[in-house]
Amino acid sequence: MEKINEVIRNISGLDTVIMREAQSRLDNLTKPLGSLGRLEELAKQICGITAKENPQLKNKVIFTLASDHGVTDEGVSAYPKEVTAQMVYNFLRGGAGINVLAAHVGARVVVVDMGVCVDLEPDPRLVVKKINYGTKNMAKGAAMTREEAIKAIETGIEIFENEYRKGIDIVGIGEMGIGNTTAASAITFCFTKKPVEEITGRGAGLDDKGLKNKIDIIKKALSLNQPDSSDPIDVLAKVGGFEISGLAGIILAAASKKVPVVIDGFISGSAALVAYNLEPKVKDYMISAHCSVESGHKIILNYLGLKPLLDLDLRLGEGTGGALGIGLADAAIKILTQMATFKSANVSEKNK
Amino acid sequence: MEKINEVIRNISGLDTVIMREAQSRLDNLTKPLGSLGRLEELAKQICGITAKENPQLKNKVIFTLASDHGVTDEGVSAYPKEVTAQMVYNFLRGGAGINVLAAHVGARVVVVDMGVCVDLEPDPRLVVKKINYGTKNMAKGAAMTREEAIKAIETGIEIFENEYRKGIDIVGIGEMGIGNTTAASAITFCFTKKPVEEITGRGAGLDDKGLKNKIDIIKKALSLNQPDSSDPIDVLAKVGGFEISGLAGIILAAASKKVPVVIDGFISGSAALVAYNLEPKVKDYMISAHCSVESGHKIILNYLGLKPLLDLDLRLGEGTGGALGIGLADAAIKILTQMATFKSANVSEKNK
Question: B318 catalytic, yes or no?
Answer without folding.
Answer: yes
